[in-house]
Every structure is written in C-alpha cells, then in structure tokens.
Specification:
Number of helices: 6
Order of helices and strands: HEEHEHEHEHH
Shape: globular
Structural class: alpha/beta
Low-confidence stretches: none
Oligomer: single chain
Distance between the termini: 32 Å
Strand order of the largest sheet: 2-1-3
Radius of gyration: 20 Å
Largest sheet: 3 strands, parallel
Length: 305
C-alpha cells in the first residue's frame, strides 16, 4: 500500500493512535486521490487501509455493497480493494484462509467475490488479482531475488530501524523518530529499533547515524507467494516467470490509471521499478472473455477450532 515499510521491521509495532501511519511518500490511496481516480476498500470486519487512514467513511464500504455493484446495481469504482474477514476481535467468522480457520471458508468467499464480477456487466473490462501476504510454510527451494529499485539499498532512503514519517514533523522526519518505531506498549522491547539493532549490532553504536554498509537493508525480496489473475484479458493456462512482488500491483494500477503519457506517478523506487505484470494479459483480444469460473461452497463440516 505504501511501497515501503519506511524503516519498520516488525508487524508488532502498534498503530499510531487516531491517525494511522503517515509515510513521507504517501500511499496508493493518496496517489489515487491526488489524480482523481475513484477507489474503495470493501471490507467485512477490518479495512486494510486502516493502517494509514483510521477513519475513512468515504472509501471504507461494506462487502455487500461491492457484491451489489459488481452485479450491476450501480457501478464500481476504477480501483477496488476487497478484503476478507480477518477475524478481528471475534466480530465475525474469519474467512481469510489463515490457520487454523477452515480453508474452505476462504475459498467460498473468494468464489463469491469473483463470480459477482464474472457474471456481472463489469467483467468485460476487469482484472481481479487474488494474492496472499504469506507463503504458508517455512521453505522455498528457489532463492529469493534482489528487489528491483535501481540498485538502491532502500525504496525511499529510510533504513531499518531508522523510521521516519509525517506523524509529527519535523521531529518525526529524523531517523528513528517516526511513530511507534521504538515503542510497543503491548510487548516492550519488540519494536523496529530493537529488532534492527539485534540484526545489526553495529547500528547500536550510532542508531541515527549513517547506516552500516555491512548490515542488511531493504533490497531483498522474500519467498514466493501465490498470485492469480482472473480476467477476460488473462492469457489462458499462462504461468508467468517474470519476477514481481507485492508492489507490482501498485505498478499496474499506476500504469493503467496514473500514466500521463510521459511519466507515471509512483510512491518509491520499489513500485517505480517493479514488474507491472502486463505480460500476463492480452488487452487486445480478451482471450478469456467466455471462460467459466467455478463455484466453491462453504465447508459442510467446518473444522475451524
């Protein structure tokens, strides 16, 4: 969503209360707003953009509305983010395929979303990405590649544990002074500053000074994750061997909606140089326009603990 973690190393860092994180370079949501591109985050229990916008009643909309709009009742925005139910605080039944929840719940949810688009009037010019934030295990035989970002060690000049943001400028623009970087009320000692120093003891000698060249930085991708493109433009039976990452989705959005003809708006070097995934599609012939999409049903015997 931001094409950077702006110095954060752990998801244990708590959200800045009341505001959400404010990256120096903004988020994809900011970029869409600035360029007049319509968008919405359809959610069930927790909108994913909450990390950056703790209150956004204009763009945070219920999943039921997406299903209706996709089916032809009204119209969809140009860009839609559609969230599963994450099971936050037990508000409702989790269906994001995360263990130990029955995976069939997630499959049924994905099937409902995809078929709403597939059987609706917007199918002919839509691209649906199904993606994951984890690989589901601890091993991948393929060596993860380096990140595409023009050889830079970070996407935006912010190094591990030296978080900076716009939460409280100008103080928060200094290395390590960004919101929640060195604070974790739920688990003291488990924060980005501490983690960076544990990984790079040399950094502890001068936490806000020049980042040690011998220490790992934000220039390495991780293990592979599943990514499925469902679209009338998808090349049939096509398996992409191009190297992409999560910011490739941002790159595609930017190319399709923010390209002025001479330059393409972007957030950081990570999305600027990411593979935009366009080689997966044939936009001239819509080879999968009439391809049927199957239906997955909820579990008959739910095995969720």
């Amino acid at each position: 969503m931001a094409a950077t973690s702006f110095g954060h190393l752990t998801t244990s860092d708590t959200f800045p209360p009341g505001t959400g994180y404010k990256p120096l370079t903004g988020t994809i949501f900011d970029l869409l707003d600035a360029n007049g591109v319509t968008w919405a985050d359809y959610f069930q229990d927790f909108p994913q953009n909450f990390s950056f916008r703790t209150t956004d009643v204009v763009h945070d909309l219920p999943l039921t509305l997406f299903l209706a709009q996709a089916s032809g009742v009204g119209t969809l925005p140009q860009v839609s983010f559609v969230d599963p139910n994450f099971g936050v605080a037990g508000i409702a039944a989790e269906n994001d395929e995360h263990p130990p929840t029955d995976i069939q719940r997630g499959q049924a949810y994905a099937s409902t979303v995809i078929n709403a688009v597939r059987n609706g009037p917007h199918w002919k010019d839509s691209v649906i990405f199904i993606l994951y934030d984890e690989h589901g295990g601890f091993y991948d035989h393929a060596r993860p590649p380096r990140a595409y970002q023009a050889g830079a060690r970070t996407p935006d000049g912010i190094f591990p544990g030296q978080c900076t943001d716009l939460s409280n400028p100008p103080a928060s623009q200094q290395p390590g002074q960004g919101a929640e970087c060195s604070t974790n009320f739920l688990s003291p000692g488990d924060n980005s500053v501490a983690d960076a120093e544990a990984l790079c003891p040399e950094l502890a000698n001068d936490p806000t000074g020049p980042y040690p060249k011998r220490c790992a930085s934000f220039d390495q991708l991780g293990v592979r994750i599943p990514l499925i493109a469902v679209s009338p433009f998808s090349k049939p039976s096509y398996v992409s061997h191009a190297k992409g990452d999560h910011t490739s989705l941002l790159a595609l959005i930017e190319r399709r909606f923010l390209n002025s003809g001479t330059t393409t708006a972007h957030l950081t070097k990570r999305d600027q140089y990411a593979n935009d995934l366009e080689e997966m599609f044939d936009f001239d012939h819509s080879p999968s326009l009439n391809t049927a999409v199957g239906v997955a049903l909820p579990p008959a015997d739910d095995c969720t603990p």
